[in-house]
Please model this.
Amino acid sequence: MAQEKSQQAAPPFEVFRARDARDYDETVMHSGPMTTADQQGMADMMQAGMIDGSHLKLLYKRPGMSLTYVWFKSGYPLPLHSHSADCLYFIVAGSLKIGTEELGPGDGFFLGTDVPYAYVPGEDGVEVLEFRTSDNFDFRALGKTDAYWSRAVANLMAARDHWSDEVTPPSGMEVG
Model:
């Protein structure tokens, strides 16, 4: 009943602004179950400076949907992972490689719930809008082996050398 009321209370028209975007917290994205190797691998990535290569902001949230802006700097080693919600990704600026596909501005892709994926931003980085079918979902790292995480940390260390020069996203847009 409370959920039904909150959905009824959601206005049929709302405006959101990039300047008001906020950081993620546990009410939006939380860690899903991970193996010990994945937990340690993510900790190693964080210690190596993973956060320095990303700018992640929640643009909009309401029951059953959310919109996120992401800027990953060049070569950002996004680890293999999945989310507990469907997501439609739209590339605003820059480029990325996912599998054998190279995508640029105006391109995008869809991933269903719990589908594992990873991509690598291009030489200018990538800005992506993420449209999700949930306002609360998980991030589940899926590297599974120490060897995977050792390579991921090495890739992060190599990519990081360029990040201090990347102070403006490819579109020039300021979010949050």
